[in-house]
Automatic annotation (TrEMBL):
Pfam families (alphabetical): Aminotran_5 (PF00266)
Family (UniProt): Belongs to the class-V pyridoxal-phosphate-dependent aminotransferase family.
Keyword Transferase recorded: yes
Domain Aminotransferase class V per the UniProt entry, residue ranges: 52-321
Species for this entry: Nitrospira lenta
Binding site for substrate: 345
GO biological process: glycine biosynthetic process, by transamination of glyoxylate
Top enzyme class: transferase
Highest taxon of the lineage: Bacteria
Gene Ontology MF, one: L-serine-pyruvate transaminase activity
Name under which the protein is recorded: Serine--pyruvate aminotransferase
Post-translational modification N6-(pyridoxal phosphate)lysine, affected residues: 197
Cofactor(s) required, per the database record: pyridoxal 5'-phosphate
Annotated gene: agxt
The protein's Enzyme Commission number: 2.6.1.44, 2.6.1.51
Amino acid sequence: MMRDFVPPQRLLLGPGPSMVHPRVLQALAAPLLGHLDPAFLGVMTDVQHLLRFVFATANPFTIAVSGTGSAGMEAAIVNMVEPGDAVVVGVNGVFGTRLATVIERCGGKAIRLEIPWGQVIPTEMIESALRRSGPVKAVVLVHAETSTGACQPLEAIGSLCRDHNALLIVDAVTSLGGIPVDVDRLGIDVCYSATQKCLSCPPGLAPLTISPRALSAIKGHRTPCQSWYLDMALVAEYWAEESRAYHHTAPISMIYALREALRLVEEEGLPARVARHRLNSEALVAGLMELEFLPLPPAEHRLPMLTCVTLPPHIDEAAIRRQLLQIYGLEIGGGLGPLKGKVWRIGLMGESSTEANVLTFLNALEEMLIQFGWLSTPGIALHAAARVYSRTGQKEY
């Protein structure tokens, strides 16, 4: 007979999933209701209101797609892109590359703006592409590129898209709940995310918001959406607050969990949450730089919730990561694509973003470097991080 599975204790400081608050785990264990039970429909309504708060939007169509962040990505693209549509897409990491692939699978023409990984797409580059490419259906950008730790500026892009009659689609998988997304202020038409990053909920749902302008584009489609499951024109009938019609069986326990995770965000407040992520990131980076682990993106485009650092050439990155997991139960991420073996990706997202976790990680890393003979002065990273915390005068969250 197969024995019970007891997960080992882990401190999740990788690119996702993040740590989960006990209240969210408790919500997962609540008794099931039917997916059309009036009490459960009330939970869905709560989730919609809380998601509007986190997205900073008044969009009526704001839901949680049943599926992971990749389902949110698919939903955003398959509902907007028809065969023959030209779509400008920023490609500066894994997820920009993936978006271009999904666009092409929909029969769209992906106009790839490719730049080196770790950099961001310049606004002028986007404007030039819009001018020279004729009618463009949409501009697609990754706000927080999880593979590089780079934060894409969005300030001028929404108005630029409107000037060219294009939609703006934004991947906020890693940014939502960690830095401002500001959907309405930025003029974002479609924005999707995932539950397991800064929202600190288990993976399984993809928050999605669609502007009235984008919904009009959906209604004007020449061809049916290529996905039945992710056809938002159909899903909308299930999430419509005034009258809900069956579409699919929602992941009920996950929606309980998301409601509780979003309540935690609301209780903390978005400004305080953003400040917490920035403070802990600054302390982490200060410690890593003392050890010659250098951030990949420049400071002005560096994500506070996902730090991507290059390693000194003499260090065996895989060996250290393996030891951190085996000895300390501490998970961080390695590089992807051309960055494999060259960088680490350290997540301080949501519940994972605490002073205690920063200091625990830096202490474990120093011990490993000393053990391998790669560090002779213990405490330098911890002292650098401590100086950041003492300078701000803020205590651990």
